[in-house]
Amino acid sequence: MSREQQNALSRTALGVFRLNGQFLAVSEKLAEPAGLTAAWWQVLGAVLREPLPVAGIARVMGITRQSVQRIADLLVNQGLAAYEPNPAHRRAKLLTPTPEGRAAISRIDPGHADLAARLTEELGGLQAFEETVRVLERLSAALERVAEDISVT
């Protein structure tokens, strides 16, 4: 590996870490008026379209199953989500939002829409924003492929 390649990797990692922190901070601000945290919003958002088992949510989000389980249990205790039977797996229940959970998510929509519009403008239009998304998705897929081969010695 050349020094330039190492530098590119380091700059990318630092940029992504910073971006993650920025997204978490903005997400906390957007979620707060709805009575949610960014983590609660993230887990509820993962099951808006269809109920998923905790392990499936963790895979989609790229975090540990234990982290999702803790948040899912909190959401259920708060009445924002519920567990339902999973026809594919007897023990792995499906998490689904309750009407209260959906209502909380809908209270985030105006701030979310405003942020999307402002970022679109800041990035120079929808085409530029969509290109940014494609680059991030490409980076994520590439890292997933090469990370499979990494071994710690």
Primary descriptors:
6 helices; 3-stranded antiparallel beta sheet; 69% helix; 153 residues; 3 strands; globular; mainly alpha
What does this structure look like?
The chain is mainly alpha-helical and 153 residues long. The protein has helices spanning 3-31, 38-46, 54-61, 65-77, 99-123, 126-147, and strands at residues 52-53, 81-84, 94-97. Strands 1-3-2 form a three-stranded antiparallel beta sheet. The longest helix is centred in the N-terminal third of the chain and has 29 residues, at 3-31. The radius of gyration is 18 Å and the shape is globular. The model has no long low-confidence stretch (mean pLDDT 93).
Question: Which shape, going by the Cα principal axes?
Answer: globular
Measured between the Cα atoms of the first and last residue, the distance is: 18 Å
- Average pLDDT figure: 93
What characterizes the major β-sheet? 3 strands, antiparallel
User: What's the gyration radius in Å?
Assistant: 18 Å
Count of individual beta strands: 3
| Structural class by helix and strand composition | mainly alpha
Structure annotation, total helices: 6
Low-confidence stretches: none
Spatial strand sequence of the major β-sheet? 1-3-2
Summary?
The protein is 69% helix and 7% strand.
Helix and strand layout, with pairings?
Blueprint: H1 3-31, H2 38-46, E1 52-53, H3 54-61, H4 65-77, E2 81-84, E3 94-97, H5 99-123, H6 126-147
Antiparallel strand pairs: 1-3, 2-3
